[in-house]
Amino acid sequence: MPHQNRAGLQVFLDRLNRRSHLTPVEQQAVLDLPAYPAEMEANIDHVALGEMTEFASLVVTGVLGRFGQNARGDRQITALHVPGDMANLQSVVEPRATSALQALSRTKILKIPHQALRSAAARHPALAEALWRDCMVDAAILSQWVVNIGRRDAASRIAHLLCETATRQGAREIQALSFEFPLTQTQIADATGMTSVHVNRTLKALRSAVTLAGRSAHVLDWALLVRLADFDPAYLQRDIEPGGRLRIAPAD
Amino acid sequence: MPHQNRAGLQVFLDRLNRRSHLTPVEQQAVLDLPAYPAEMEANIDHVALGEMTEFASLVVTGVLGRFGQNARGDRQITALHVPGDMANLQSVVEPRATSALQALSRTKILKIPHQALRSAAARHPALAEALWRDCMVDAAILSQWVVNIGRRDAASRIAHLLCETATRQGAREIQALSFEFPLTQTQIADATGMTSVHVNRTLKALRSAVTLAGRSAHVLDWALLVRLADFDPAYLQRDIEPGGRLRIAPAD
DNA sequence: CGGTTTATTGACCTGGCTCAATATGTGTGG
DNA sequence: CCACACATATTGAGCCAGGTCAATAAACCG
Known about the structure:
2 copies of one chain form a homodimer.
Chain A: H1 3-19, H2 24-31, E1 36-40, E2 45-47, E3 55-61, E4 64-69, E5 75-81, E6 86-87, E7 100-103, E8 107-113, H3 114-123, H4 125-151, H5 154-168, E9 177-180, H6 185-192, H7 196-205, E10 210-213, E11 216-219, H8 222-229
Antiparallel strand pairs in A: 1-8, 2-7, 3-6, 3-8, 4-5, 4-7, 9-11, 10-11
Helix pairs in contact in A: 3-4, 5-8, 6-7
The structure holds a DNA duplex.
């Protein structure tokens, strides 16, 4: 297998290992998954609403977004997927897409056939559990988005999105840091239930904490940003000590 | 086992069967789950944020809500659970609660120990898959809530919530129907990211389609309500033909 | 360099919020 | 069955966060 593929799967495995206890055999099963590199153009539906999917998409570089929309066609981003995320993992058990998937900027992915994921999960119950758990973390994120959009004002919403994305990409609480954030202001608006005009104005108000330039975000004052965002990273379940990592079945 | 418990588990099994293909042995494993009846007072946290849970809660009558909140303490309901739902099913793989759970009105539940669910899932991979899939339907609902709160106006939000709840409770498209809906206007506000005052005013505007009284909703014009709500029930995955019901592993 | 996105800004408007008062339930104990 | 206490619903008046519309200005890209 090309080196690049293996590296992508390794990142995904690292993520699973952070929250689940997997045996070497199970870990190898993850690394042995077939993976087909692909590139996704921005702003084109990669998976359409209602489509049956055959692949899950492991993000290597870039960002994917899951989209819903209302009757008027206004779009709402319901989830972001950063490198290491398996977008569409839920489609392993629910292949009919309930929302559209597209890249927010040019994105490299690895396509992992459902067939392979399903068979690996069937052979290794603890792996199935780890995948299930990974989906549940995504659900916890979704739940936070409901709170974010429903009960926070414009500045907090954007700040929260930034804190979450930084944390999911592995940022720690450093005074000054930068991270990849290739969303346009219109896409930020679609993720936070706002208007691009108001995103623009709100970003100005946040300038003492964070600025966006090109494809990345520059945090000037992380503590301030966290405060503005009302951000508590517990829901991301990032730092589970080894003893707390769960496993449903005895090791093979 | 008392008759009432068995009936509750049967409703849950029916729900699993609607979307997953389970063998008789696997179905029996569901019915054999230990279940402890309990009653939940309204407006008291049954599961607190960050708490480790030992039980999943199968709703028998009433409604449970999952709550998040912002820094000011404004609450946001992120999910509703109606009879037949296993609230907290995700806690089987993620026992630390990432949101609080409380009853919205006096509610009867069956407590199902995680231990039993985990062991049943470990013994029957297809059952694990069915539970996983059930969690994914909840996630699809959550995703719709993001769209609802982010991109619909007040009337549509409430109409959508009502359509969803009616459909999840098994309602079909009848011209006139009633269904249980024991939420106060304040709780509707917390579910839709609004204010109770505005919920009150919006309900008046919806009177030609639906009225609320006591603990139930009375639909005068379902087609109108659906149109106002911009409601498409596909995401609820209710009517999967038997041939489409999935199973990850060969039958035992 | 030209064409297309994306960002920025101004002027104005409105849906939904806030604050506050009043009415209507609803459950409880006597 | 009544009366009280508390929760819930209803209504009015005024305000404001964020939306809409529209025009430039920058940035990006081939």
